[in-house]
Amino acid sequence: MIFGQNYTKKPKKANFSQKNTNFAPKIFKNMDQKVFKAALFDLDGVVFDTEPQYTVFWGAICLQYHPEHPGLEHEIKGSTLTQIYDRWFDGPLKAERESITRRLDDYEQQMHYDFIAGFEALIADLHQHGVKTAVVTSSNIPKMESVYRYQPGFKQLFDAILTSEDFERSKPDPDCYLKAAQRLGVETSECIVFEDSFNGLRSGRSAEMAVVGVATTNKAQDIKDFSDIQILDYQNINYDSLEKLLN
Question: Of 25-29, 188-192, 234-238, where does mean pLDDT reach its minimum?
């Protein structure tokens, strides 16, 4: 109906003191605001507090093969098995790789895979807000089978699990996190990476994603320049605090 000069009945004034959907002001969301759609987690030292166990294993291996280099087990943290072999078990020691791999496989079958404090609660909170979750790990499928035996409900916590078999290039290359975003159908700007090692933190940064540094393998101060925030565990973070990282 068009209101004009020949219309004798005066139109009623809108009463903004009452609910009136026709006159309610519309709130438009900032088009530049990023939406938090996916949380991407490394495994060891991020989901599970397994680094102390690996320190024991590699401490024995390094003492046996590199007694001239004390503390090597700490230097190789965050490296893939291939990276460790290429750097420290080449040349005359190349023949020992097969034996070390067998020992590592046997060791991982006996390991404890206990969640870092608050992790399961965070996952539940993220899912309630529609955030997808994925594990992005350099671990291989045989290692993951040990994880599934120890934590039967592990697969149900995630929308995707990516292992070393899914990547062409290892961390610090961003390949693994870019593939994870693609698998989940999200943009890199909508993802938050959780990492503990320097290689992993660099990988998340190179993928142009927000990065949470988990200070289990390295001190919070040491990873500060490679992450947006640093945490010791997941007890004091939730969806709301993480979303702020993107904006």
Answer: 25-29
How is residue 156 written in tokens? 């149900």
Task: Return the residue matching tokens 């490679």.
Answer: 226
Dihedral angle computed from the Cα positions of residues 102, 106, 109 and 112, in that order, rounded to the nearest 10 degrees? -110
Other beta carbons within 10 Å of 115: 18
The predicted-structure confidence for 83-112, as pLDDT tens digits, reads as follows 999 999 999 999 999 999 999 999 999 999
Closest CA relative to residue 115, chosen from 183, 192, 194, 59: 194
pLDDT tens readout for residues 105-135: 999 999 999 999 999 999 999 999 999 999 9
97-110 vs 81-88: helix axis angle to the nearest 10? 140
What's the chain's length in residues?
Answer: 247
pTM greater than the 0.90 cutoff: no
**Count of Cβ atoms closer than 10 Å to residue 116 Cβ:** 22
